[in-house]
Amino acid sequence: MSTGQRNKTTAAARENPHPDGPRLLADIGGTNARFALEFGPDQIEQIRVYPCVDYPGVADAVKKYLKDTKIGHVNHAAVAIANPVDGDEVKMTNHHWSFSIEATRRALGFDTLLVVNDFTALAMSLPRLSDEQRIQVGGGKAKQNSVIGLLGAGTGLGVSGLIPADDRWIALGSEGGHATFAPVDEREIYLLEYAQKKWPHVSYERMCAGPGVELIYRGLAARAKKRVGANVDPAEVTRRALEEDDPLALEALDCFCGILGTFAGSLAVTLGALGGIYIGGGVVPRLGDFFANSSFRTRFESKGRFEQYLSNIPIYVITAEYPAFLGVSAILHEQLSDRGSGGSAVFERIRQMRDALTPAERRVADLALNHPRSVINDPIVDIARKAAVSQPTVIRFCRTLGCQGLSDFKLKLATGLTGTIPMSHSQVHLGDTATDFGTKVLDNTVSSILQLREHLNFENVEKAIDFLNSARRVEFYGLGNSNIVAQDAHYKFFRFGIPTIAYGDVYMQAASAALLGEGDVIVAISKSGKAPELLRVLEVAMQAGAKVIAITSSNTPLAKKATVALETDHIEIRESQLSMISRILHLVMIDVLAVGVAIRRAAPQAEVQKAVKRARDDGNEEALAVLDWLSHGVAPSKRPRE
């Protein structure tokens, strides 16, 4: 994007801004993280580049960018990343960053955080490229509403495609660059054999990604029995070819282009890409006229009986400076638009009714549309303040939409959010059939668990696990229904070898708590968190030095008294179901803690097993006996010293 374009963009952004504020766009590779702000449709500015190595994680880089641009807060963000994206956990292949998408969204305070593969984003940018942002290399005219192919040579070889579907495009996720390399002549057979000395499987990525330029150069040098210095890299080979007309470098670069042409031709016939093949990445656009005059186009069309078929397909080299921003912008726009086009009944209803609302109610509607998570999470006093209305107006707005109140509206609003797992909740009514109330009970339970995931303080979870893992003794206290959870916790934790017991009687709790002290831990489980007899028992234990982990609702006396509080709130429903859902959430929290302790104990145990193997290999019987005791709890026998 040129300076002139950016200036025009900045001016346009002020005329037609996004109603929900600027959106964050990111393109993250193994070396650099690129960020931009989109203030309106195709109005992208504030582009900045940060070295990934300078930041511990992706959230740190985002925070630095937001601080540098002084933008304050962003509600919606989309990230293109040079990595497969399959689920919530992302672990980069070419960099050490790994992160949870959902945890990162919460940490940054975004309403929406979409993370997609960088080539999926690049593919989605293709329909939005202008003629000035691409250069055609041979072929005829692209056929309208046809499949488009995409490849890009950079650190790796990315592959994707676009399939037309009515008035939209579907991007293909692909790892096609790892297809097995197929040589077409004696020279390439030699290069294959040369590469097989390093890798058992030689893919096209090995040959026609950026590092392939150096591989081909060194392979051709070995074939010609020429010596090559250790400091030759892909950039140096390219420089020697383009600036010095070095014969070996020129041959290597043309061979690279030829292999890429064969791969691109295979991609075109595989996809039926009559809409054209686009080439991005960091290598080809830098080759300029050399690429256009290379063997690429000839090799692209060299498919025997399909030569005529391929000769009509145009090749486009992408010259746009930051095309991935266009792609993630399109993906984010589509996701956010789904809120008003069937993605959620409540969002659609708000949009339909907005013009018929009073001016005050309309402000509440706008807040719900533009900042839905804020409405879901905030108490009514904060919602009213942010919308600049009274609290009764908020309630009146909810009832106008057909909701029973604010809680019911929050639950329906949660079902339409993008960028996270949808949540739903329903009221159980007298007269419901088994199908109706059975479905509602299950939906309500799932919804509550997802709400717990959304709001749980995981730093406190870490602290609780640390206390439990190092505890001398653990006691679980629960009264009434909570005693069931305490007994379940006792069953899970005694298997770790920690002295543990569960008490559901307040007198037994008092008697046992009086004997606790430093190194002991009480896990107190209570829905209300208000039982005065339980609070008195815990006070005695804490004064003696014991730690208390509370599994309870937020802002209760128990939560405030405990050393660590794990708050299991859920949106209120019918009173008859409160204890049931609370019990489920408490059982889930016990499972989280048990898994955490198991993981903590598995790591040192694995080290013991490694030490056992070393002692056995060394024949060190005394060390082996001690390690066997550590591993299995069998005391080493005493042997006389020789």
UniProtKB/TrEMBL annotation:
GO BP annotations listed: glycolytic process
Keywords for the protein's UniProt record, in alphabetical order: ATP-binding, Cytoplasm, DNA-binding, Glycolysis, Kinase, Multifunctional enzyme, Nucleotide-binding, Transcription, Transcription regulation, Transferase
GO molecular function, one term: ATP binding
One GO CC term, this protein: cytosol
Ranges for region Disordered: 1-22
CDD domains: ASKHA_NBD_GLK (cd24008), SIS_RpiR (cd05013)
Catalytic activity: D-glucose + ATP = D-glucose 6-phosphate + ADP + H(+)
Signal peptide location: none
SUPFAM superfamilies the UniProt entry points to: Actin-like ATPase domain, Homeodomain-like, SIS domain
Subcellular location, principal: cytoplasm
Nucleotide-binding is among the record's keywords: yes
Protein family: In the N-terminal section; belongs to the bacterial glucokinase family. Belongs to the bacterial glucokinase family.
The protein, known as: Glucokinase
Lineage: Bacteria, Pseudomonadati, Pseudomonadota, Betaproteobacteria, Burkholderiales
Name of the gene: glk
